[in-house]
Design goal:
Blueprint: H1 20-42, H2 46-76, H3 87-92, H4 96-104, H5 110-113, H6 119-123, H7 126-131, H8 137-168, H9 172-199, H10 212-237, H11 247-278, H12 281-289, H13 296-314, H14 317-321, H15 323-345, H16 362-383, H17 396-400
Length: about 400
């Protein structure tokens, strides 16, 4: 890092705007999602409709909560390099209120998705009876609702501290944000586990895995970082934030995207390897179900999409410093996250004796596009409402001098 400080800041940029085409594509995606879900519901295929809804709503929720988690990680680690792009994660958090409400709607489809939602089935099943104090509709709504409410509250606290600093300057908002960060990351570890257990893992209530919560956390971090990278790339390519956001900042962001691919591969492999090696029936059922009935090619495609290809494409320094290259690889990671959620949800939804057969996920993908489109519209709206750069943050000079 260089130690000279440039005292004159570049001219203050206007409010950040996503290009019109992004708004147009997002609106089209929302329409596609509505059509996909409408088709599934109108055909009376409740399992397909609700599982598609679940994939989409969880996908967008992960992006929203990543905004808060990333702010917390950056404040605690003193990541001065990221100050000029702080508005991106802050805008991501604005999804949490509408996204949280949409996530609670999953409860309406509980009987189509979750085996344990049916009291008569639980009564005949010893294991589900033992899990019933945790796995029941009331606890589902209460604990998921409380977790989402905490996310919304912490998001609001971070963003308001940041805006107070925009007005008044000084170190106090930064210090407050660091304290909030320490508290939030502990709460986040617990709440992301609860939300992941209820929405995704309990689809297979007989299955045991001690790695699942960590895997969901990894997914959120990998996908969220990729979304930030795409948006930072778009802002750079459209010539916004000139003088505030450059290749050095992008390089650090690219290194984070690169690191998360390895982190994901490590966690995913650990879960698989431990289950394969121990060979305990209540654990192996999960992977056996994803190797039968046509699911194996889907399963094998996942590590290629989420680790091998992005890893190889991002090894070079140039790829991490090019807004276009980084955005394209990040887009692949965003698609891979859909693929993984599809593999978590769809094979589990064949209830009772009916087996879920592998199929091309047209409805699922449409629904997810709808949620991502909606997320992007909310994100874009929030992005333009505040100063483009936290100019009064004491770390802004260090951020502008940053070399990577």
């Amino acid at each position: 890092m260089s130690h000279h400080h440039s005292h004159a800041l570049p001219a203050e940029p206007g409010p950040l705007k996503l290009p019109g085409i992004v708004h147009g594509v997002s609106a089209a995606c929302v329409l596609a999602g509505a059509v996909a879900l409408g088709l599934a519901f109108s055909r009376g295929d409740a399992e397909l409709a609700w599982s598609s809804y679940l994939i989409g709503v969880f996908y967008a929720l992960g992006l929203g909560v990543f905004g808060v988690a990333w702010l917390a990680i950056l404040y605690l680690s003193g990541a001065d390099w990221s100050v000029s792009m702080r508005r991106i994660p802050e805008a991501m958090t604005s999804w949490l209120l509408p996204g949280g409400v949409l996530a609670m709607v999953v409860g309406l489809g509980g009987s189509s998705l979750y085996h344990w939602w049916h009291a008569d089935l639980v009564a005949q099943d010893r294991l589900l009876t033992l899990k019933a104090p945790f796995l029941n509709a009331t606890m589902f709504m209460a604990l998921v609702g409380a977790s989402l409410a905490l996310w919304v509250i912490f998001a609001a606290l971070f963003v308001s501290a940041s805006h107070r600093q925009d007005r008044d300057g000084g170190m106090a908002p930064t210090r407050l944000s660091r304290t909030l960060s320490a508290v939030f990351l502990i709460i986040f570890a617990l709440t992301i586990s609860v939300v992941g257990f209820y929405l995704l893992m309990s689809l297979e209530a007989h299955w045991f895995s001690t790695m699942f919560a960590v895997l969901v956390f990894t997914d959120v971090v990998q996908t969220g970082t990729a979304f930030v990278a795409i948006m930072a790339g778009v802002i750079m390519m459209t010539g916004q934030l000139k003088g505030f956001l450059n290749q050095n900042h992008l390089h650090s962001l690219g290194k984070m995207v690169f690191a998360t691919t390895g982190f994901w591969a490590y966690i995913y492999f650990c879960q698989f390897m431990l289950i394969w090696y121990a060979n305990i029936p209540e654990e192996t059922a999960y992977f056996l179900r994803r190797m039968d009935h046509g699911w194996l090619p889907y399963m094998l495609a996942l590590p290629a999409l989420k680790f091998v290809v992005p890893f190889l494409l991002l090894v070079s320094r140039n790829a991490k410093r090019s807004p276009l290259a980084l955005a394209l690889v990040s887009a692949l990671i965003l698609f891979a996250q859909f693929w993984e959620l599809y593999l978590m949800v769809a094979p589990a939804v064949g209830q009772g004796d009916a087996v879920a057969l592998a199929h091309v996920p047209v409805i699922e993908f449409g629904a997810t596009l709808g949620f991502v489109g909606l997320f992007t519209l909310v994100f874009g709206w929030s992005l333009g409402r505040h100063n483009a750069v936290p100019l009064k943050d004491p770390a802004i000079a260090a951020c502008l001098d940053y070399q990577s």
